[in-house]
Amino acid sequence: MPPDTTVVLALAAALIEAAFGYPPALYRAIGHPVTWMGALVGWLDRALNRETMDFSARRAAGVLALALLLGVTGLVAFAIQWALAVGAAGLIALAVVAASLPAQRSLDEHVRAVADALGQGLQEGRRAVSMIVGRNTAVLDEAGVSRAAIESLAENFADGVVAPVFWTAVLGLPGGALYKAANTADSMIGHRSPRHLAFGWAAARIDDLINLPASRLAAVWIVLAATVTPDASPRDALRAVFRDARRHRSPNAGWPEAAMAGALGLSLAGPRIYGDARVEDAFMGDGRRDANAADIARALRLYRAACVFQLGALAAVALALAAL
User: Fold this and answer.
1) 99-116, pLDDT tens digit by residue?
2) Cβ neighbours for 156, distance < 8 A, ≥ 6 positions apart
3) Which family does it belong to (predicted)?
4) Residue 289 DSSP symbol
């Protein structure tokens, strides 16, 4: 599939997903591509990750598991693209399939739910934010809940929205699907638990690599969005990115988080508690820590503007390629 077509595919998929999301009825009926990928990752984990194996053997098994996951995903996605990408009607059908990969609408809904829940009390806010973060929410106060929601919004904008759209624009449906498969594997086995430290090594390294361009792009879209969002500062967003992004313990999450923090005048990240363990991390931004539900609403306005800038960039690239 030529580049002018893959960019149009990514643009159409992003527009469809923004407008309609992933229909709940369809999810109940057949699940979602991420759930199918997750089921395969879970099966490979159970089949190949044996506690009796030494570290090297478990790491090799993890490499094999990732290769199998990506091989199956790539073959299925290529077959779908080959079958559908014929004529305008086929491209529209392919865009509907590709619309299952980004998560603009669902991310907005989940983060907005945290702001709404905080209006009903701290316990409701903790419950809502526990749906989108992995940290120990029982110890969070209102400011902690609000910061967690905003941090999740920033990070997931990069890996849940920008990255699948970017890889679809570059490599078509197989690119977007392969990205989602690798990202799903990282979320399931790419952490430093005793079971997955070795087995998830490959998934974690690949995820870091394939998120490099999207995390930087996400920061760009947030900085640009701050130019048109009331009570947001593009200058402070840019300053926070250059000063703080590389100090984050993740090679990618710091970019959108720093941009979001600077734009909103907040201080995000920093020390956090996962389970019973305290994770030390650098602060993103140098603003106030006392975030609240109103700041979540501000972050969502910034996020929506950033999504629009991404769509505009895709449209501009598509027009430029068509003119060649």
Assistant:
1) 999 999 999 999 999 999
2) 103, 107, 132
3) Belongs to the CobD/CbiB family.
4) S
